[in-house]
Design brief:
Number of strands: 10
Strand content: 25-35%
Distance between the termini: 66 Å
Bound molecules: 2-acetamido-2-deoxy-beta-D-glucopyranose
Number of helices: 4
Oligomer: single chain
Strand order of the largest sheet: 1-2-9-4-7
Structural class: alpha+beta
Length: 228
């Protein structure tokens, strides 16, 4: 039997756990109906903004609304980075609306195809390598790198919000599928956020942050522009 004083501790602990759950649970909100297939763009009132997308009338939802061919075709990797990310999220596959899920197909050119360092502010990601080999990794908030080489069939987890990348160092094309626990995971690509914002960051900010001269900042800006 617990003594009354222990009950107080137990109740306090349970309360703390419940509250910390409330405070840290920050995944997409739960659906309040079986499905909420997003309305087509041409049925959306451009003056109404909600957290997500409005639902199509459920009486008009069809089986085909739950199917997408969006990831069927390989992305075009004929670009400076040698990679292509195609994301099926609530905005490109309406059935994902309110489901807290999205899925990306990533194609990588041989010999260096790179999905550049980036973060998903709203999702963790589990990557399934379908074809080829990849070097993948993320950096935690203590600046520790966690990197591994993947072969076809392998999985790797990128924890939510951490900077991560994948590069194809093999001499064959690679293809991976990334599953993300948000219907709108968001993506901030580090090099672009810092060196290719629509209004450039003040050069002094980048000079001091990177310990470099203005000329080097300009050179990096030009380099990043070429990757866009
Ligand atoms: C954080 O990084 C430092 C320096 O690399 C290391 O000594 C330390 O063990 C790391 N701490 C954790 C919790 O990983």
């Amino acid at each position: 039997m617990l003594k009354p004083t222990n009950y107080v501790g137990l109740v306090a602990s349970l309360l703390f756990l419940a509250l910390s759950g409330l405070l840290v649970s920050a995944a997409d909100s739960d659906p309040l109906q079986d499905f909420c297939v997003a309305l087509d763009a041409d049925h959306i009132n451009p003056d109404v903004f909600v957290n997500g997308f409005l639902c199509k009338n459920p009486m008009e939802v069809l089986a085909k609304d739950f199917k997408s061919e969006f990831l069927r075709m390989p992305g075009n990797t004929d670009n400076k980075l040698g990679s292509a990310v195609t994301l099926a999220s609530a905005s490109t596959f309406g059935a994902l609306n309110t489901q807290g899920l999205s899925v990306a197909r990533i194609d990588y050119a041989p010999k260096g195809g790179l999905n550049a360092p980036h973060v998903h502010p709203r999702a963790a990601e589990v990557l399934f390598l379908a074809q080829g080999t990849l070097l993948v990794g993320f950096v935690d908030t203590n600046n520790t790198l966690f990197a591994q080489t993947l072969n076809a069939g392998d999985l790797f987890v990128f924890p939510r919000g951490l900077v991560h990348f994948q590069i194809n160092l093999g001499d064959k094309p690679a293809m991976a599928i990334g599953a993300l626990n948000s219907e709108n995971p968001g993506r901030s690509t580090v090099a672009q956020a810092l060196f290719a914002a629509d209004t450039p960051l003040p050069s002094e900010v980048l000079e001091t942050a990177f310990g470099i001269e203005k000329e080097e900042v300009d050179r990096i800006i030009q380099g990043v522009q070429k990757t866009l």
